[in-house]
Amino acid sequence: MIKQTLLENSVRKFMPKYFANVSDEQIEKIKNYIQAFTAHTFAGTPTGAVLTDATASEGKMIRPRLLMMASEYGPKRGDAQETLYKLAAIVEMTHLASLIHDDVVDDAPFRRGKPSIQSRYGKNAAVYAGDFLMSRISYHLMKEGLNRAGMVLSKTVEEMCSGEIGQAMCRYKDTVTIDEYLRNIHGKTVALFMACCRIGAMESGCSEQHAGILESFGECLGYMFQLRDDLLDFTDDKALNGKTVHQDFREGIYTLPVLIALERPGGRAALTPYMERSAAGTLTAADIRTMERIVAEFGGMEEAWKYIRRYQRRAEELLAFLPPCDAAPLLRKLVSKLGAV
To answer: What are the two backbone dihedrals, phi and then psi, of residue 324, each rounded to the nearest 5 degrees?
Structure first.
């Protein structure tokens, strides 16, 4: 039942509809700024092709949408519209740069079911393109005088790097803890959600108190997003999220359901042979099916849902402290949806 519901409710598919307050016209303006900010003279080169592909992708624009929704709580939102569009473009560029670099680090042949950028154009072009995007982000933040937002985003990029480094240090580590895992996904995923909420609130004139509440809300949302996404690895549909089922486990990245099962009496003894085979590169499809059954038997998936619902309750509490606005009902519905099996 859990598997089927996850298949029907892929987080990347359903999230954008809960940002319906962000119109198609606004998204188009954000995309126009992305194109303007990433204009280059590399046409006809592999690096130019990477930049063109990355910035022309039909992504869900979740992070820009979140920034715009957070800005609806601010009393000066109307006066800050163009600045908000620029910042929404910049956070999406940050996300794109991180995806490009992830492809290189992971040596991933596919992303979301399509050939990855580095597999099509080579690692050098991918690295150059990712670095180019980051340099443009810094340039336009300074050019536009967006110093406060720039400080938030710079710290966020540091946290994203720390999350990736932390995850790399934990690969195939059979003693990795849930706390380590949560710290790593905080950097890899959660930090940028938090930044989107704080920047949107800050630039639209929210008080420091409300900006802090929205940032904490973004933290809950980011954890729910990532934890639910990790649970998708426990489905049988390879096409759902564009990666081989249990690719994380194969690569020695132990996500929350696995870590929970390891902590249960008997769970470590049951899972250790499959972790050792994963490290040795001898894991088979039958091993993966057995590993999944063990995780389920030791309550890994069910307990992971409890983590999601704890973040859901906290997110709902935070929203209750904010003033009413048009975005509020949609954000409450989104939180409820993310917490539903």
So the answer is: -65, 145
Alpha-carbon span 256 to 155, nearest angstrom: 26
Q: Cα separations (Å) of 173 from 112, 161, 177, 244, 337?
A: 27, 19, 9, 21, 33
User: From the CB of residue 115, how many other CB atoms can be counted at a distance below 10 Å?
Assistant: 12
What lies within 8 Å, CB to CB, of 213 at 6+ separation is 318, 321, 322
Axis-axis angle for helices 62-71, 24-37 (nearest 10): 120
- Residue the block writes with tokens 């426990």: 234
Tokens of 25: 């016209």
Q: How far apart are the first and last CA of the chain?
A: 9
**CA separation for the pair 243, 88 (Å, rounded):** 28
Q: Which residue ranges make up each domain of the chain? A: 2-338
Q: Which residue, 60, 23, 112, 18, is CA-closest to 338? A: 18
Residues contacting 132, CB < 8 A, separation 6+: 38, 40, 47, 51
Q: How far apart are CA 256 and CA 314, in angstroms?
A: 19
Look at residue 108 and tell me whether its pLDDT is greater than 80: no
Rounded to whole angstroms, how far apart are CA atoms 301 and 303? 5
Do residues 48 and 110 touch, judged by C-beta distance below 8 A? no
Span 246-293, pLDDT tens digits? 889 999 999 999 999 999 999 999 999 999 999 999 999 999 999 999
Report the distance separating Cα 56 and Cα 52, nearest Å: 6
pLDDT at 239: 40
Q: Which amino acid is it at 305?
A: W
Q: How many CB atoms lie within 10 A of CB 144?
A: 16
And the tokens for 148?
């406060």
pLDDT at 237 over 60: no
Can you tell me the distance from the alpha carbon of 134 to that of 153, in angstroms, rounded to the nearest whole number? 11
Q: Does the domain spanning 2-338 belong to CATH 3.30.1360.70?
A: no
